[in-house]
Amino acid sequence: MRTTRVTIRTVAADAGVSVAAVSKVLRNAYGVSDALRENVMASIERLGYRPSTAARGMRGRTFTIGVLLINMENPFLPSLVGGFKRVMGKAGYNTLVGVGEARTHVESALIESMIDMRIDGLLMIAPRISHDVLETVARQVPVTVIGHHESVETAFDTVNSDDSAGGRKATEALLARGYRDIAMLCPSARTEKEGQVWYEREKGYRSAMADAGLSDRAQVIRVSEQPDNIYPDLTKMLGRTQDMPDAFFCWSDIHGVPLINLARKNGLKVPGDLGLVSYDNTASSALPLVELSSMDQKPQELGRIAADQLLTRIKGRTGTRHDLVMPELIIRSSF
């Protein structure tokens, strides 16, 4: 038996309002009263109505936003995406999430698929694609980028933690506790540096060490980001017999949490033998047996600002925004 398809006209008849009124509610248009919205939404829920994305795209907006993630491994991401989706949801938008697996060709294919679905905007979080590709995408759809600093870019918007200031703050906190041989733990070097998160944090670290007259003691140790390689790399580093730092600033909890666990497993006292400050303030850093001091990027605020950037772009804003959120050091017992 074929089920009769529920249309916008079905919803309008059930709610006792015009098709135009239902359309206004679906578009979250200005001037819709709370009573009308509640009445129409009750009919939509009762009837199980699903707006046709294709039809909405032909009329203009699809009220669908794409989100591209670099991977699913960083525990910092759920809070960011959650903050973004809440704002977009209140504005009447659905969110499609794609995972790029830190591979350029995968990210590019996902972006093309989302654009083919006539998304109204795209949020990219730490994309690994080139600047030229970002500009090309931004000519087709409004784009906001998180995790890549482009302060002079005019084609797309960005919102980031002030990573340079965060790296400085973290290093200054260690200096204030009396540490002097402070190293920074970074992901393995890549050819592209300028604008990337780890590089901005490294600039802050080096700046703080220079201001303390310790440029000659600054050292950046690079280890793998891959889960299977992190512990072997950290084990090798902690096994150094010479030039072992007395403190580390870790660019991310991705390395900070394994480092504090491995250091204690190897009999090192943290703090005492080693001081640690990390970045991201993920849930794992706050666990009672971890207690890792970490820079809070305020991910929900980043998500909220990203949503506002896209919404205002969709509504016609032409000027570019490059917003920074000041991170906050959450002090625990690791230094």
Index terms:
12 helices; single chain; 6-stranded mixed sheet; 6-stranded parallel sheet; alpha/beta; 335 residues
Distance N terminus to C terminus?
A: 69 Å
Count of separate DSSP helical elements: 12
Looking across the biggest beta sheet, what order are the strands in?
Answer: 2-1-3-4-5-11
List low-confidence stretches. none
Number of strands: 12
Please state roughly what percent of the residues sit in beta strands, choosing from under 5%, 5-15%, 15-25%, 25-35%, 35-45% or over 45%.
15-25%
Net shape: elongated
Rounded average pLDDT: 88
Helix/strand layout:
Elements: H1 8-15, H2 19-26, H3 34-47, H4 53-59, E1 64-69, H5 77-90, E2 94-99, H6 104-116, E3 121-125, H7 131-138, E4 143-146, E5 157-161, H8 163-176, E6 182-187, H9 197-211, E7 219-223, H10 227-238, E8 247-250, H11 253-265, E9 275-279, E10 293-296, H12 299-314, E11 322-325, E12 328-330
Helix pairs in contact: 1-2, 1-3, 5-12, 8-9, 10-11
Give your account of this protein's structure.
Strand 1 (64-69), helix 5 and strand 2 (94-99) form a beta-alpha-beta unit. The chain has 12 helices and 12 strands. Helix 1 packs across helix 3. It starts with 7 loop residues before the first helix and ends in a 5-residue tail after the last strand. The protein is of the alpha/beta class. The mean pLDDT is 88. The chain is 42% helix and 17% strand.
